[in-house]
Amino acid sequence: MYRSLFVRHARAGFGLAATGAVLLLAGCSSGDDGDKQPTMSQQPKAQDPYWVNPDGKAAQQVAAYREDGAGKNADLIMKIAEQPVGEWIGPDNPEAEAKGFTEAAAKADRDALLVLYNIPHRDCGQFSKGGAADGNAYREWVDKVAKGIGDRRATVVLEPDAVLHLVDGCTPDEFHEERYDLLKGAIQRLKQQPATKVYLDAGNAGWSQPDSLFEPLQWAGIDKADGFAVNVSNFQTTAASKDFGRKLSAKVGNKHFVIDTSRNGNGPYTQGDPKENWCNPPGRALGERPTTKTGDPLVDGYLWIKRPGESDGDCKGGPKAGDWFPEYALELARNTK
User: 77, 158, 165, 194: which has the fewest Cβ within 10 Å?
Assistant: First the structure.
């Protein structure tokens, strides 16, 4: 059986700890197989300024397949490994991780793409439940992330689902005021860093009540952010996401937005229980490659925010949320035109 890599992280794969982050600065992998690690070249900067992590889980899987003589599988996973993806900052060493990723990106003359996903009462107790213990812990965590970023170039996608779950009723009312305050404060703190862009998550085109999102985004401080993100960890088509984003933008000061195209190549899964179609749905494909050349003045980038190949949760045969899911990664790559 081919070796697989199951790195334990939260939801979409929290970042490396301090030791791993230091290794990133040298552009190498940890462990005895470092000499077998595939070389990851950066994408042309004019097309996509974001950093390709040479030590990402997809890159590690490529190395494992090659070691085992599974060249075809290695080539498939390279479709993921050679693209820049979001680095999800973990709860324990936020300053070291943010510093490690941004320093590695700066060394390659690229921008870091970071995702912050640690809001208290996260994910309404579902597959990715957790988050900071309370508001003060969250503020301290965000402050450490900001210090880790320093004056290096970074784009931050802030708190997937945090606003949406205030609107859909799954976050109890007593936590609403605090969450708005925390999101607004996070934007303000991150924007103190001179080269940091912040995009507040704003759900996806499958949301049945988009008109209910305008005011919550404003309450969460969208006016101080660079824009918002749509389709994070979801499968809505790019065309639908653009339409959704334009409608939101018109109501929140014509803010720009980014679209997660990591797994939307075949659009959403429409069979089975609609409540579970977001969780490791079969038959999906990688979407448009990451780029800032979108041809749309409102769309700042097609980004791979969710890391393709990592599980949405322990459903449909998958491991827990954020763990590497090699069979799913291969399916995404095989289905990509």
Answer: 194
| pLDDT tens column, 105-162 | 999 999 999 999 999 999 786 777 789 999 999 999 999 999 999 999 999 999 999 9
Supply the CATH number for residue 324's domain. Answer: 3.20.20.40
CA-wise closest residue to 157 among 184, 187, 131, 179: 187
Active site residue 33: no
**Which entry of 55, 161, 260, 323 is annotated as an active-site residue?**
161
Distance of alpha carbon 104 from alpha carbon 54, whole angstroms: 10
Q: Are 171 and 121 in contact (CB under 8 A)?
A: yes
Please name the amino acid found at residue 39: T
* Number of domains composing the chain: 1
211 is catalytic: no
Q: Choose the catalytic residue: 201, 260, 300, 312.
A: 312
Give pLDDT tens digits for 202-243.
999 998 778 899 999 999 999 999 999 999 999 999 999 999
Structural domain including 125 reads 18-334
pLDDT digits (tens, 9 = 90+) for 36-62: 556 678 989 998 999 999 999 999 999
Which of 288, 246, 295 has its CA nearest to residue 267? 288
Exposure of 62 in the CB half-sphere (CA atoms within 13 A): 23
